[in-house]
From TrEMBL:
Residues 91-228 form the Fido domain. This is Fic/DOC family protein. ATP binds at residues 174-181, 206-207. Gene3D superfamilies: Fido-like domain. The record marks 42 as: Important for autoinhibition of adenylyltransferase activity. It comes from the Bacteria. The active site is at residue 170. GO terms for molecular function: ATP binding. It comes from Desulfonispora thiosulfatigenes DSM 11270. The keyword Nucleotide-binding applies. InterPro entries: Fido, Fido-like_dom_sf, Fido_containing.
Amino acid sequence: MFKEIDEKKALIESKRPFSQHTLKSIREKLLLDWTHNSNAIEGNTLTLMETKVVLEGITVGGKTLKEHLEIINHRDAILYSEDIVKNKEELTEWQIKNIHRLILKGIEDKYAGSYRDGQVIIAGAEHISPEPFLIKNEMEGFINWYYNEGQKLHPIEMASMVHIIFVGIHPFIDGNGRTSRLLLNLELIKAGYPPIIIRKENRLEYYNILDKAHTTKNNKDFVNLVLAELNTTLDLYLKYL
C-alpha cells in the first residue's frame, strides 16, 4: 500500500545534495497552496493570488479582516509546526493548543487554544462529536493512542489517523479542520515526507470520506486520499530536484 510512495521518497533522497534555491521555491509554493486550500475549504474567499499578496503583506480590497487574518495565522501555524519538527519536540496537548491558538489569533481570542464549552453540530455529517465535558478525557486518550498503538502503524497511516481521531473529537469551537490538517502534515514531515495539500475542489469527497471513517471505523478511503495527495507532492519534488 505504501511501497510506491516510499520508493519515490527514497529516489528523492538519492538526489542529495539538493539545490537550496529550488528547495526554497518548492517550500514557498507548498506553503501558499496549503494555506490557500486549507482556508478555502473552511469558506475563505481569497483566491490563490490574493492569498499570495496577503502573505507578502498587502491588503486585498473587498475582503474582510477575518479572511486576511486566516491567511497570516495559517502561515504562522505552519512555521510553528516546522519549528516543532526542527526541535524534535514530542506531540502534546499543549502543542496542539498552541497551533490552534495561532489559527484563531485575533479572530476568536476567547476560544483560541481553549477546548470548547458547548456542543457542536457538524453540518451534513452523521458523526456526532463528544459532549464538552468529555473532551479532556478524549484528548488524553488521543495522546495515549499516539504514543502506543499509533507508533505501530506506518507513518502515513499514523498521520492519517491523527487527523481522523482529532477531527472526530472536534475539541475546539472553530478551527478544527485547519488544525487537523496541520497535525496530519506535522506527522508526515516528522517522518521525512513532504506535506500534502487537500484541495478545495475535493472538499465534498474529503468530508464524505471523513464521515465514513467516523461512522464505520473504515479508514482505508481516507488513507488512500492522503496517499494520492502525497504522491502529487512527491512528483513535484521529482520534477524539479
